[in-house]
Amino acid sequence: MSEQTEAFVTIGLEIHCQLLTKSKLFCQCATDYIGKEPNTLICPVCTGLPGSLPVLNAEALKLTIKTALALNCDILPQAVFYRKNYFYPDLPKGYQISQYDLPVGKDGFMEFSFQGKRKRVNIKRVHLEEDAGKLIHEGPDLPSSTSGVDFNRCGIPLVEIVTEPDLSSPEEAREFLNLLRRLVRYIGVSDGNMEEGSLRCDANVSVSLTGQSLGTKVEVKNMNSFRSVYKALKFEVERQREMLLNHQTIEQETRHWDEAKQVTVSARGKEEAEDYRYFPDPDLLPITIDSQLVEEIKNTLSELPLERKERLMVEYELTEGEAEVLTQEKEIADFFEECVKLMPKPQLICNWIVTEVRKNLNMMNQSIDKSKITPQKFVELLKLVEKKEITANIGKEILEEMFKSGLTAKEIIAKKGISMISSEKELEKIVFEVIEKNPQSVADYLSGKEKALHYLIGQVMRATRGQADPEMVKNILVKKLSGED
Amino acid sequence: MDIKEFKDFSLEDYQKLIKNREISVKELAQLFLQRIENVDPYLHAFLFVNRESILDEAQSLDEQLEKANPEEIPPLFGIPIAIKDNICTQNIPTTCASKILEGFIPPYDATVVSRLKAQGALILGKTNMDEFAMGSSTENSAFGPTRNPFDLNRVPGGSSGGSSACVSALEAPVSLGSDTGGSIRQPAAFCGVVGLRPTYGRVSRFGLVSFASSLDQIGPITRTVKDCVTIFEVISGKDEKDSTCAPYPAFQAQEIPSREEVKKLKVGLPREYFSEGVDSEIIESIQNTIDFLEKEGIKLVEVSLPHTVYALEAYYIVAPSEASSNLARYDGVLYGFRAQEAAELQEMYFKTRTQGFGKEVKRRIILGTYSLSSGYYDEFYLKGMKVRTLVRQDFEKAFEVCDLLLTPVSPCLPFLFGERTQDPYQMYLADVFTIPSAMAGIPALSINCGYARSLPVGLQIIGRPFQEGLLFGLGLLIEEGLALGAPFPEIPLRKENTYE
Amino acid sequence: MDPKINLEEIKKVAQLAKLSFKEEELQTFFEDINNIVSHFAKLEELDLENVSPTSHISWSTPPTNPDQPVQWPDYQKILERAPRVSGNYVIVPKIVDK
């Protein structure tokens, strides 16, 4: 029965992204903590030793402003830091330095199309805060009944983005989160890596059967991947809907996503005592954000991914899917447009990037700007293919080699002695041999079986180790078989 | 050598002795160590005496002196300095007179300490205080109180009681204290010495263990105004490690106006500071000074600071609120005291903090936590901040008609041990005249202006932000005019007064 | 404002501040706090409606850090001071509230 009953779902997201600064938010410890020995990137400030004082990393504030601008927020004239007071071993000062009623940015939005419809998600606030340390609850170093604290991550700058509850399904939330991740990566404020914890997401979910009023708000936490966000939201929506259908009351609470059991579980107990006693951090004077700085940052904000996608579609006559793939990363889109400047064949370039370039990048686990391929080298290769000096298949092989060695296509060709078997004479000889060896297939073809031709083409290609142009092979075969020659 | 010979010595005088090789740096250090040995069992001004390493360091300074041009040695070369125990000193314990930091040895120096060291000063020891600077009598030290050198049955004031008593008793030529609501000026007054609370932001707080961050300031406690200037020149000025520190250069003695210029200043007498609640003998002593100033031709005007009485209430909201958060870091996780036998985290938190903090600290933590808690923020903390605005405006208005304000430091003379501990509010009232200027962030100087019932009386000069030069100018004039000299209380070395 | 704090509130605040009190000391503590708080009623005399709060004393633009990592040379010294350490981790008793 429940399957058919419609439910009105509202979801709001709270996203934390680690900002791409080199040093921490209030001290100069390095931020590249991944893979480092515990408690080696620490100092008196980020471990809250008595007498230590915070000093703001100006770059972190700029990146926060950039994020807020990219989300169409109003930038407040002053950045005021507040203390959020609570005790936890990963929080060495007993409070987190965050922002409160005066965030860096507020009242923004993000627009995108979802299932063919235009969707607008309002952004409540964008603010800057410091990250906490990391706790481990098991491991070879831990004596029994203890937990271990590593403060390396403590004090790394985070931007927190809070949406209004404008998302109306787990699918939509997933799409939004994807686009947001793309955005922060695209504008270079965060690497948005959820698995490594540089992007974290909490959600508020409420379900109502009537849609006349909002349902009870339930907070869902502890979702550590894009997949788990989606699954947790799916689960939570269904859980609340079932409860409503059974006339049960939904409690306002915090629930944790249990990845192993694939359910959300109540995190009761902790919430009741929470009273964060926010107040302005007296160690940090409010910082004026002047309009000139905002303008400067605005100017560094290049075209945002959605705008660029639409422009690519119009300017180069690409499909939405193609433009989408190209604009998933700024570096890819930049690469594409660089190439088009060198060789005005957008469709060909797009096809190769969408398939071959991305395949290689994935294989090598690289981003295009860190790879050995430049637009110049890439275009040189494509020109060889276009002029039929090599076949597409050979081109693919060469590209892979270029990714590995960094050599140019011509260098690889010279080194490996690859050349296009383009002379018809040479090819005719091979075709002749294939015909000789496959009398049955020839007979089949002549009796009208088209498939047999494909088999014969395949045999020729095999004999030329893929170096022949398949189109040319086909023409020669057809000519020979029909006895035109 | 009898220490009494040095009673009226300034830092410059010590420097001359060292430069002229009349005394070695090591001998000077030994002299003060000996003095501490003699009187500190009675005073308990020190929580830690840097006995061993100061002699080594003194020795190495003496060796440097062999090779150096005596004219080029820095201004504090070889001067032993006592440091309040809430100011971090590398490799020397810093406990804030609290059990929760017992044995804590900072791995770094406070900015003020590194500046003193850079000028050749030696750390003589760490001085006693009210736990985390919360108190006005030094009775709240977890390690036992300090006694007033003028009367061992009386308190030295607080919270910089140790820093004031040791300078008064000449256990140290100078010291550093910290002032949140009067913690330099009130004990300086109680011990008959000079204390400066600088403009907020004039001296770096980096390395000062925070009590109330928006109020805390480090300042010198000295035997003369001149020495106060010398130390202030060294410790003041911008510091990139403290974002509340103003980005202006250090104070320079040239900022002090000439005597003639000082005589042209207009001095305001705020009527709220001469009210009924003030000990009549204190008023009398201040009046003598006023008479002297009038004779010198200084113009005196009556002014009003109408929010003075409210400042005290606002302070006891704002300061504990900040303190409740600043003291959250003492949780037993990373440093300091950790209660043993806690099976789980929450138990460790409760036991550590309950066993580690003293009564007054707990009282203020509770008060501050309450003021900030949801539902009470607007009624308490926000109100406190608003009153702070009114207090600042009071001073701004007053400074439209005068250049400096002259007031008593404290409404009362040094009181007996236990006299005010029963009623915490009575203790808070001891700060009523030092709190308003602290709330406004403006500078104030406390100097001795006489004695009443054989106890020192303190006078306070308050000025506009960054005008410490004017305070010193008037302070020097009064100091010279009253000619009281630096204190040298006879400390009766009776056995029953020995501090246990 | 009603300046009186009731005992339950004190207990709640003590929980927030991670402080515990024995029943017998709680009573005097409670009285002292209430005595102090009762004086706050004096602030009722003031009209604070249009007064802006002073949270900081600020004379100029505060300094900021450049985005440049600087390794603090003595990081081992922080662990040396910790009450309990194992394998570079700071060790705390097990956490049961989560």
TrEMBL record, chain A:
Gene3D superfamilies the record matches: 1.10.10.410, GatB domain, N-terminal subdomain
Catalytic activity: L-glutamyl-tRNA(Gln) + L-glutamine + ATP + H2O = L-glutaminyl-tRNA(Gln) + L-glutamate + ADP + phosphate + H(+); L-aspartyl-tRNA(Asn) + L-glutamine + ATP + H2O = L-asparaginyl-tRNA(Asn) + L-glutamate + ADP + phosphate + 2 H(+)
All residue ranges annotated as the Asn/Gln amidotransferase domain in the record: 334-481
Source domain of life: Bacteria
Keywords of this entry: ATP-binding, Ligase, Nucleotide-binding, Protein biosynthesis
Coiled coil regions, renumbered to chain: none
EC numbers: 6.3.5.-
InterPro entries assigned to the protein according to its UniProt record, in alphabetical order: Asn/Gln-tRNA_amidoTrfase_suB/E, Asn/Gln-tRNA_Trfase_suB/E_cat, Asn/Gln_amidotransferase, Asn/Gln_tRNA_amidoTrase-B-like, GatB, GatB_C_1, GatB_Yqey_C_2, Gln-tRNA_amidoTrfase_suB_CS
Family that this chain belongs to: Belongs to the GatB/GatE family. GatB subfamily.
Assembly behavior: Heterotrimer of A, B and C subunits.
Annotated function: Allows the formation of correctly charged Asn-tRNA(Asn) or Gln-tRNA(Gln) through the transamidation of misacylated Asp-tRNA(Asn) or Glu-tRNA(Gln) in organisms which lack either or both of asparaginyl-tRNA or glutaminyl-tRNA synthetases. The reaction takes place in the presence of glutamine and ATP through an activated phospho-Asp-tRNA(Asn) or phospho-Glu-tRNA(Gln).
Record protein name field: Aspartyl/glutamyl-tRNA(Asn/Gln) amidotransferase subunit B
Organism, as annotated: Thermatribacter velox
Gene of this entry: gatB
From TrEMBL, chain B:
Keywords: ATP-binding, Ligase, Nucleotide-binding, Protein biosynthesis
PROSITE patterns (UniProt xref): AMIDASES
Signal peptide: none
Reactions catalysed: L-glutamyl-tRNA(Gln) + L-glutamine + ATP + H2O = L-glutaminyl-tRNA(Gln) + L-glutamate + ADP + phosphate + H(+)
Residues the record marks as active site: 84, 159, 183
Family according to the record: Belongs to the amidase family. GatA subfamily.
Name the record gives this protein: Glutamyl-tRNA(Gln) amidotransferase subunit A
Organism: Thermatribacter velox
Automatic annotation (TrEMBL), chain C:
Primary role: Allows the formation of correctly charged Asn-tRNA(Asn) or Gln-tRNA(Gln) through the transamidation of misacylated Asp-tRNA(Asn) or Glu-tRNA(Gln) in organisms which lack either or both of asparaginyl-tRNA or glutaminyl-tRNA synthetases. The reaction takes place in the presence of glutamine and ATP through an activated phospho-Asp-tRNA(Asn) or phospho-Glu-tRNA(Gln).
Protein name, per record: Aspartyl/glutamyl-tRNA(Asn/Gln) amidotransferase subunit C
Gene: gatC
Any Pfam family hit: GatC
Subunit note: Heterotrimer of A, B and C subunits.
Lineage: Bacteria, Pseudomonadati, Atribacterota, Atribacteria, Atribacterales
InterPro entries hit by this protein: Asp/Glu-ADT_sf_sub_c, GatC
Assigned protein family: Belongs to the GatC family.
Reaction catalysis annotation: L-glutamyl-tRNA(Gln) + L-glutamine + ATP + H2O = L-glutaminyl-tRNA(Gln) + L-glutamate + ADP + phosphate + H(+); L-aspartyl-tRNA(Asn) + L-glutamine + ATP + H2O = L-asparaginyl-tRNA(Asn) + L-glutamate + ADP + phosphate + 2 H(+)
EC annotation from Swiss-Prot or TrEMBL: 6.3.5.-
Keyword tags: ATP-binding, Ligase, Nucleotide-binding, Protein biosynthesis
Domain of life: Bacteria
